[in-house]
Specification:
369 residues; alpha+beta; 2 domains; 5-stranded antiparallel β-sheet; 3-stranded antiparallel β-sheet; 13 helices; 13 strands; globular
Length: 369
């Protein structure tokens, strides 16, 4: 099996395993899109020059597709480069104890709620400590290094904020790791405790055991990590690693057979790359648990980056920083985008002539053909 198109071929070969009623609809829809990506089943555009005719099949646009996700990430980075001010940024990774992970796996609405919760913790702590409102971008993440379900948040926050009372930008460098851990731990424990009172979270545990577990987790240390960036481009490159992509890169696969899948995984305890071998059914289960639900945002914006904050304060923010506000760039045509990102123009034929659009093949006609 070719590693370059592994997920597409794997999804096609295992259709009988995932195309069933008991599988989440979001999983079936995303894997179905991947199987049709860059094939006539999604339709195609026809271009021609004086000497050559080429047909370009449509892409699936799924966030779980390696190629489509990669291109969407590049477009997002380009837009954010123009939209974000040139200030220093930091990343704060909020994790939680593994005994709480099953809650978020069974009730995926919690993943959306906890993203807002993490942003609220950062915003409130920064305001209490420095009296400012920062720029906050939250990327919820569900997968660990072994494809296990490990919900956590990558929160990208500016190392400075707007003091609305004095109308000035205030820089700061220090984030108190232990204070943020206490605030984060209290917020998640309180949220889950209150949620249990109003509705049942799908779990095999009894109510008494849930209360006991939450009480125990309130007393232990939770891991958080803080990373500082030297520039805005460093910040955008780091964020791009966690956006719109499947949980495993295709170059990590070692071998794939009809029965087993073997891939590389980075073991932090051993500080080495190790081989993981699982059955095809188990790998499919590991993979599909990370497929997001429909209409769930992969990126959440808060603080000065929230829709309301950006609309009201964006112009004033650039003025206070002494920077020129850049207009949002126009979306590049697909051929220009491919030429910029991959170094070749697909509309140039073998003789160096530019091909022109001449027609379209619909998905229906392509399927019949």
């Amino acid at each position: 099996m070719e590693s370059k198109h592994f997920l597409q071929k794997f999804s096609t070969d295992t259709r009988c395993l995932w195309n069933r009623d008991e599988i989440r609809q979001a999983v079936r829809d995303n894997l179905d899109k991947i199987t049709k990506c860059r094939t006539p089943l999604l339709g195609a555009e026809v271009y021609a020059s004086d000497t050559e005719v080429r047909t370009f099949c449509h892409t699936c646009k799924s966030r779980f597709c390696p190629s489509c996700g990669h291109r969407a990430t590049l477009l997002w980075q380009r837009e954010q480069w123009y939209a974000l001010p040139d200030v220093r940024y930091s990343e704060i990774c909020f994790t939680m104890p593994n005994v709480l992970w099953p809650f978020f796996r069974r009730d995926r609405q919690l993943l959306s709620d906890v993203a807002a919760l993490g942003a609220s913790v950062i915003r409130r702590w920064v305001h209490a400590r420095y009296g400012v409102v920062p720029l906050i971008l939250v990327i919820p993440h569900t997968f660990g290094r072994r494809l296990n379900f490990h919900p956590h948040l990558h929160i990208l926050v500016s190392a400075g904020g707007l003091n609305k009372g004095e109308n000035r930008w205030v820089d700061f460098k220090h984030f108190d790791k232990y204070a943020l851990m206490y605030w984060w731990r209290f917020a998640v424990s309180k949220y889950l405790g209150e949620l249990l009172k109003v509705r049942a979270i799908p779990t095999d545990w009894s109510g008494a055991k849930l209360d006991e577990t939450l009480e125990k987790q309130r007393k232990r240390k939770w891991n958080i990590h803080i990373k500082r960036f030297s520039s805005k481009w460093h910040f955008l490159r780091y964020a791009g690693r966690y956006l719109r992509r499947p949980p495993i890169a295709e170059h990590r696969f070692i071998s794939v057979t009809d029965r087993e899948v073997e891939f590389w995984a980075n073991d932090l305890r051993l500080k080495a790359w190790v081989r993981i071998k699982v059955s095809v059914e188990e790998f499919l289960s590991l993979l599909t648990q990370h497929v997001p639900e429909h209409y769930v945002h992969g990126i959440r914006y808060f603080g000065l980056l929230s829709p309301a904050g950006k609309h009201r304060l964006s112009t004033a923010l650039f003025v206070l920083l002494g920077q020129e506000r850049r207009l949002r760039p126009k979306r590049l045509p697909w051929a220009k985008s491919i030429e910029r990102d991959f170094g070749h123009n697909p509309l140039i034929d073998r003789h160096g002539q530019l091909m022109r659009w001449v027609g379209r093949k619909s998905a229906t006609s392509a399927g019949k053909a």
